[in-house]
């Protein structure tokens, strides 16, 4: 298992479990509470309940099911990514079809695992998410490879959340981080977080490369580097 190295502290990663099946929640608790680097701070039965508990529990990572009543995992992930960009949401589900995978990644998921994943891989996924690494189940990776092969490079944009697209579009107009923050009514720190995620999803190293990538593929009208 990957050793904890990113946080630079001995504090355990705080995890919130979200699933509408109590058996699944009990199983996750049974394994994860044995991991010295992980602390289970709470659980929720749907996305709505998870959102209501975030401020009190302050999790670092949320393990999120997809199909749940009241608010599903994709909607919850989208809201969390928008309101709490510092929190990593890892999807843990039984579904690997394109209608589950792409919307989840578009919503801002920091990882995607299926419920048949080996426990130690799940633990590594949690640790990796905090390090900024996105770990995907092999079936999910295969699905994405197929989609890219079928749709070409413009599918890159489908991996961006709506807010990341807004940030990237404003980047192409030449606005600074401070100006983007003012335009979107978010903090400059949040803008930087979105930009970092954009770099990772597009496979680029800096702002200029990201803007050139967007302009080259005609994602937005106009724009300047």
From TrEMBL:
Query: Matching SUPFAM superfamilies, A to Z?
Result: C-terminal effector domain of the bipartite response regulators (SSF46894), CheY-like (SSF52172)
Q: Which residues carry this modification: 4-aspartylphosphate?
A: 65
Q: Does the keyword Transcription regulation apply?
A: yes
- Segments forming a coiled coil: none
Keyword Transcription regulation assigned to the entry: answer is yes
Q: Which InterPro entries match?
A: CheY-like_superfamily, NreC/VraR/RcsB-like_REC, Sig_transdc_resp-reg_C-effctor, Sig_transdc_resp-reg_receiver, Tscrpt_reg_LuxR_C, WalR-like
Domain Response regulatory: start-end pairs? 14-130
Q: Would you kindly state one Gene Ontology biological process term found in this protein's UniProt entry?
A: regulation of DNA-templated transcription
Molecular function per GO: DNA binding
Q: Which CDD domains match?
A: LuxR_C_like (cd06170), REC_NarL-like (cd17535)
Which keywords does the record carry? DNA-binding, Phosphoprotein, Transcription, Transcription regulation
Task: List residues of the HTH luxR-type domain.
Answer: 153-218
UniProt-recorded name of the protein: DNA-binding response regulator
The scientific name of the source species is Xylanibacillus composti
